[in-house]
## 1
Amino acid sequence: MKFRLLLVWLLLGLVAPVCAQTSERNRPMTEKKEFALHKVAQIAVTVKDLDRATAFYRDKLGLKHLFKAPSISAFDCSGLTLLLSVAESTGAHSSIVYFEVADIQATVQTLTERGVTIFEKPNKVGQLGQLDVWIAIFRDSEDNLMGLRSMVPRS
């Protein structure tokens, strides 16, 4: 069973890029590129005990720890940010996938025009070096929270 799953994973990893390249090549040059989210930038995992979870991900899994604040702890996973956050209520135990976007305001406008419910409007949540970190939260068709993240250079 493990071998079969590994084989499927390898095939998907090898075939998907080829299919994507073929699809791009076959698109007419005059065709207008449609809006689409494409790059996952951050995944937020809800935890019960932030100190314990931070130690686990840092010490047991060996992930590069970026910072810890009172309710969150962040790790770098080769460019993807793993964000541990304390559950706001006892029943809320889910994860949020954040999509990287260049212009969070324009993206929220486009999603709103498409009927997507914006749960939390774009707001600056912090800074990483010379970048301001902006986040917006929306709900998918199954009422799951999903996110947008934009890293904006400070002027």
## 2
Amino acid sequence: MRVAAPAILIAIGLIGLIVAGVVQGGIPELQVAQLLAADTAPRGTIKVHGVLSEIHSGERPLHFEVADKADPSRVIVVKCDRSRPDTFQKTYDIAVQGTWDAKEGVFVANQIFTKCPSKYEAEDRLKAGTVDGPIEPTETSAAPSTAAPVAAPSDGVE
């Protein structure tokens, strides 16, 4: 019986992890063009990625447009009854989570995720191979140091 109790606790823990993973990771993610091209409107909560293209109302309730990154002519209207994020600016990458009202042609968001381009710009340019000049290594960089070695402090004895 002593062996059965830990096995039952482990099984319950694994089931809890699986359920939590499905609940948290089960939200479909689409680009704006994919949402607009869908034959049937997605049901339930979805996350849509794009670029903030227009802000009609920056005050609560927010009213704005999100364009597809690859085809900026593909746009969805978004309404959200939340406060404006600090990085809520035109041309910034954005993801909205909520439901798509195909009849009204409006995405009703309950969450907004923004990405400030300046924070990731150097990294993206490096990955794309469009770096104009050297990128300075940081403390976490594996690049070797180009600084001259520092001499140990002298104790006055030569």
## 3
Amino acid sequence: MTEKELYYGDSTFVYGIGCDVFDLRRLEGMSEEKLSLMGKRIFHDEEIREFELAGDKARFLAVRFSLKESIAKSVKTGFRGFSMRDMRIIKTELGAPEVLCYGRFKDIIYEKGIVKIEVSVSHDGGLVFTNAIALKK
């Protein structure tokens, strides 16, 4: 890898940046049933299975919701023309979050020329902080 490739990659540039903060107190006292209903509205089918196995369902929901908010902001659409269910958050072998795109959301990012969406999440106390950067060729 040359120094230019290290800094400029394969000629990608930042299309947009999104961030979000989620306060876990918003979910305090919510029953597991209600959390599950919320999850079914925002989770991809595979995420629903992960949610059902999660120990801390409120934190799982908060992280995924916040990441998806950041992603929608980074592609400059908000949630117009697609659903949160069209995004799936997975973890790499090292635990870093990655985005998989489906359905209409996948079509929209391809139309915009977006080739990758990088995401990051941090937790501090009852707060979840997320960032997303949409990269375009």
